[in-house]
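Task card 7
Instruction: Convert sequence to structure tokens.
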Amino acid sequence: MRRVRARVVGTPERPRAAVFRSSKHISIQIINDAARTTLVSASDRDIKVKKGMKKTDIAREVGKVVAQRALAKKIGKVVFDRHGFTYHGRIKALADSMREQGLNF
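Output:
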């Protein structure tokens, strides 16, 4: 994780989108590292999880929610920080849905 954070830094123009994934939950925060503030956040607890939804489907919904919230605050470009997680499965689904909604990274 330290190697990733050494290279990925959020600025006011391009804040950092930090993803956290556990075995049960997924969350993301868009952070301005210069001011040390969280601008936008979303979690699987923010959405209605329907019965039968898979973890990748939930991650896709979380990506849509955070992208909509970011675009509402006029944040169009971010730096994607996957926290050392492999860009595969839930992380990839989250990132793809953010891109589909209009966030650039």
